[in-house]
Amino acid sequence: MKEPYGDRIRVAAAQYFVRTIHAFEQFEDQVSAVVETAADYRCRLLVLPEYFTLQLMSLGDVKRPIDVQVRDVAAFVPRFIEMMERLAVDNGLYIVAGTIPVIDEGSDNVHNDAFLFSPNGGYGVQGKLHMTRFEREDWKIEPRSVPRVFETDYGKLAIAICYDVEFPELIREMARAGAHVLCVPSDTDDRHGFLRVRYCAHARTIENHMYAINSTTVGGLPRTRDFSLNYGQASILTPNDYAFSRDGIMAEGTVNTEDVIIGEIDIKTAEDARSFGTVLPLDDSRRTKELIKHIDTEVL
């Protein structure tokens, strides 16, 4: 039964532990446990991490080239969609289901796509728009070209997949399109990469008066190339202003442990802050667009 949350909703970010499995059913059991935990705490939105589906590589020969293994995981897309649709409906929450490799029909192009599943059935898709070097050069993954904002029963949200959050212009336009929640599924193998995503996600909350929900992978698959280690700490981040959490951190996990991070966000608070905050960077950035049409260079 749905409860009348109004503008305040409870959200969850998974700190998903990637481990070796021997059957798809083990993957389904682990994902179901995370979803059911979020539902037990009456969350309305759960975010899972980028590439957590590569756990399915352990069902094959992990010594093959990584681009081949990634394409094998894409074969699980229909089964994955069926599973996540059912979990979203049965548990009554929206699920940003991390990402999974998707092969374009009629070609060999592979994309890194995030599916947003609705508790009412059905789903939307946000593809990753910027590829990291290892995705482009080693994994042979192609970028998508369409950013989206999704309308939910509590407001608009956007999805920035890992590296995408490092592009402030992109997130600013999503905010201007009405998004007050930014979901950031990420997968990083070391502290440097993790902090790039974390710092940028927090910067986007300040620049746009929006919440950021960062879900991360931890653990890894032994003996695999490029997926043996994951470094992560899931978090729910807020703008730095009086109406929000001290230090702009609503909740965060313990680094590199298996966990589900939960917090309550207030959509109206974020909306009001865009007009009445201590500073108004989203509105004032319109002046910036005018200022940078021409940048002077001075020789000293």
In short:
By secondary structure, the chain is an alpha/beta fold. 31% of the residues lie in helices and 26% in strands.
Would you kindly provide a written description of the structure presented here, covering whatever features stand out?
The chain has a single domain, classed as Nitrilase/N-carbamoyl-D-aminoacid amidohydrolase (4-Layer Sandwich). It contains eight helices and 13 strands. The longest helix has 18 residues, at 191-208. Mean pLDDT is 95; it is low at 1-5. The chain is α/β, with parallel strands linked by helices. Strands 1, 2, 3, 4, 5, 6, 7, 8, 9, 10, 11, 12 and 13 form a 13-stranded mixed sheet that branches.
In percent, how much strand structure appears in the residues?
Answer: 25-35%
Radius of gyration: 19 Å
Average predicted confidence as pLDDT: 95
Q: What is the CATH H-level superfamily? A: Carbon-nitrogen hydrolase
Can you give the helix content as a percent range?
25-40%
Q: Describe the largest sheet.
A: 13 strands, mixed
How would you spell out the order of helices and strands?
EHEHHEEEEHEEHEHEEEEHH
CATH architecture type:
4-Layer Sandwich
Tally of helical runs? 8
CATH class: Alpha Beta
